[in-house]
Design brief:
The complex is a heterodimer of chains A (about 325) and B (about 290).
Chain A (H helix, E strand, L loop, with lengths): L1 H11 L4 H14 L4 H31 L1 E2 L9 E2 L3 H7 L2 H32 L6 H13 L2 H11 L6 H9 L15 H26 L3 H9 L4 H29 L3 H6 L11 H11 L3 H26 L6
Antiparallel strand pairs in A: 1-2
Helix pairs in contact in A: 3-14, 4-14, 5-9, 5-11, 5-13, 6-9, 9-11, 11-14, 13-14
Chain B lengths: L1 H43 L2 H4 L14 H9 L2 H32 L5 H10 L6 H13 L6 H26 L3 H8 L4 H12 L1 H17 L2 H6 L8 H6 L9 H31 L6
Helix pairs in contact in B: 1-13, 3-13, 4-7, 4-10, 7-10, 8-9, 10-13
The chains are: A mainly alpha (about 325), B mainly alpha (about 290).
Chain lengths: ~325, ~290
């Protein structure tokens, strides 16, 4: 590139001193930064920022998890090795939170993927009112989780909730049912709310993938007499795989870290039937001020999240597609 | 004769398909908007008519008293202002730093490019709670608890990977001739970035700014933990912690919730295409 532009200059510089000087000045300015230097200049702020606010805190959390009293100014931090991990992992309520989180994540994500794919296939065409449908799909995603939780707490209200009213009117229930204060049902209600909110996000991501599949593949399959189901199975799904990977990671990580929804919908109850891992860890850290144990739980959460990512990428990533 | 009836059957089938299709679309819209429609209806009823069973679907009397109560009982205007400042600040930092890194990663040739991209993207996968305790401690030591910067700094870090990704996907699509023309005209690399690339990247900036803004407006975990003073709460925390004196005031809450959603509804209405483009950028090419 540099030699191309240099040629351009020498052609235009008529040979006199002034334009020769200008030419040199331009080259100087042009070559002030190589690509590498320029990249360093642009990337150092971002990388510094990420190391300070993202990577360093993770390391610090691991360090805190090995100590006791680390955050209380009145007490000296004391190194306890894996003591915090032992007390976290031997706590029944931690394992309850672990089970709740696993059910929540691995029920909601597959259901969201199926509903999201259905929605995406449905709206993947031009039709009158497409923008209204798109707004309807975007709205649940844009709604703040905690406000969504508050809204559904009202809709599911055990005495005056509209859901109860509708179910009684239709005849499915004979009297209002306390969805959110029944220990066996509360987690189901929470799953319903999260699936309502995030299926639309999956639909948007998958829609982008659908639109990148060239039409001629379907035309060829049609000429070969492939059924719609067969086309879906051997064209749509395989070509959608990389996008499905993105959607899976973007949905599993937040589901695994659910905090606002249980906090606002049920407060983790009744009992601890909807207490997720992050809610458990947050209560331990900031209500009981057990920072060491909280940090140990945070480290365990990070390790599990990273493991899930690695498993997804190892099973679904196809290098040749990129 | 036979071809005529064949065409008619085809038309009937087509009408049936269309009915089914639009029926599904209407159903989706209903299911999506029902909760917020119900909140609006609840907020317009007198408080005493809200707690009835069977439920009153069409309010017999419409009133704005719940909105007045909500505004008088809690500093909702202040909460909204706090959210606006935090979300705007986060959006600005993400656009500035994100565009710089996105430019380097898409249009410059240098060593370790893939490693840098991995470092940036992997940070997006680190759990938020894993970073909460040290950042809380840091904010306490530096006096950033109950300050706007205390939230803007972590939010920006969490959204930077996304911003970088959007910008690098956008810059990749720009023609090479843009920079060549600039360099021939004697601009430096920085000159090319500021005088040529950034002015044409307004669409990517808008997309990033809107999505980051929505994220920061909606965040709850850090907002709850870092803002302990009532006056510094964001709107999400304000609504979550809003309590009545005796019973839970569903009518007032509904009014507050509806007010807090209006800014988001407006954003979605005016910029929905930008939001969709942003969420799907790069994904289609994956």
């Amino acid at each position: 590139m540099a030699s191309d532009t240099g040629e351009g200059y020498s052609r235009s510089s008529g040979g006199d001193l002034r334009s020769a000087l200008e030419d040199r000045y331009r080259r100087y300015r042009k070559r002030r930064f190589t690509d590498g230097e320029m990249a360093a200049l642009l990337l150092v702020p971002v990388l510094t920022y990420l190391f300070l606010v993202s990577y360093y805190p993770i390391i610090d959390t691991v360090w805190t998890s090995l100590q006791t009293g680390a955050l209380l100014p009145t007490r000296e931090a004391e190194f306890v090795g894996l003591g915090n991990y032992v007390s976290v992992l031997s706590s029944a309520s931690f394992w309850n939170a672990f089970t709740v989180t696993m059910i929540y994540t691995f029920v909601s994500v597959p259901v969201e993927m199926v509903i999201g794919l259905g929605l995406a296939l449905l709206v993947n065409r031009d039709f009158w009112g497409k923008y209204v449908a798109q707004a309807a799909i975007l709205f649940p995603w844009a709604l703040p989780t905690i406000i969504n939780a508050r809204i559904w707490a009202w809709l599911f209200h055990g005495e005056y909730g509209v859901i109860n009213d509708l179910l009684v009117r239709v005849g499915i229930l004979s009297q209002p049912f306390p969805f959110l204060s029944h220990p066996d049902v509360a987690l189901g209600a929470m799953l319903f709310v999260t699936i309502w909110k995030t299926s639309s996000f999956v639909a948007l991501i998958l829609l982008a993938g659908l639109q990148s599949i060239p039409d001629h593949l379907y035309e060829a399959a049609h000429i070969d007499g492939a059924s719609v189901f067969h086309q879906f199975w051997s064209i749509t799904l395989p070509l959608l795989k990389p996008v499905i990977l993105v959607a899976l990671i973007f949905r599993t990580l937040p589901a695994f870290q659910a905090f606002g929804l249980p906090y606002g919908l049920t407060g983790g109850g009744p009992g601890e039937s909807t207490t997720t891992l992050v809610l458990w860890a947050h209560q331990h850290t900031f209500n009981n001020l057990e920072f060491g144990e909280g940090a140990a739980a945070a480290t365990i959460i990070t390790l599990i999240a990273m493991t899930i990512c690695v498993i997804y990428v190892a099973t679904l990533y196809e290098p040749e597609v990129r | 004769m036979s071809s005529d009836s064949g065409r008619r059957r085809f038309d009937l089938q087509r009408v049936g398909e269309l009915l089914g299709f639009y029926g599904s679309i209407v159903l989706i819209c209903l299911v999506s908007f029902f909760p917020i429609i119900w909140i609006l209806i609840t907020s317009l009823k007198p408080a005493s008519r809200v707690i009835t069973f069977p439920v009153e679907y069409v309010p017999r009397t419409v009133t704005l008293e719940n909105y007045v109560t909500a505004i008088q009982q809690a500093p909702f205007a202040r909460y909204l202002l706090n959210s606006l400042i935090v979300a705007s600040g986060t959006a600005i930092i993400c656009v500035v730093l994100g565009s710089m890194a996105g430019y380097a990663l898409s249009r410059l040739d240098f060593r370790f490019k893939l490693h840098v991209l991995m470092i940036i993207l992997v940070s997006a996968m680190l759990p938020f709670f894993g970073r909460l305790i040290p950042l809380f401690e840091l904010a306490r030591e530096t006096g950033l608890l109950n300050s706007y910067l205390g939230l803007i700094i972590p939010y920006s870090a969490f959204q930077l990977p996304f911003a970088v990704w959007i910008f690098q996907a956008y810059f990749k699509e720009l023609p090479d001739s843009l920079e060549e023309a600039g360099l021939i005209d004697g601009l430096s690399h920085i000159g090319v970035l500021f005088r040529i690339i950034l002015p044409v990247s307004a669409p990517a900036m808008a997309t990033t700014a809107i999505i980051v803004f929505i994220y920061a407006w909606n965040e709850f975990l850090f907002a709850l933990t870092f803002m302990t003073e009532d006056q510094m709460r964001t709107i999400t925390v304000g609504i979550a912690l809003y309590q009545g004196e005796y019973t839970y005031p569903w009518a007032t809450i509904s009014a507050a919730v509806f007010m807090s959603i209006v800014p988001l509804l407006l954003l979605m209405l005016f910029f929905q295409r930008k939001v969709v483009e942003g969420l799907t950028a790069g994904v289609g090419k994956a």
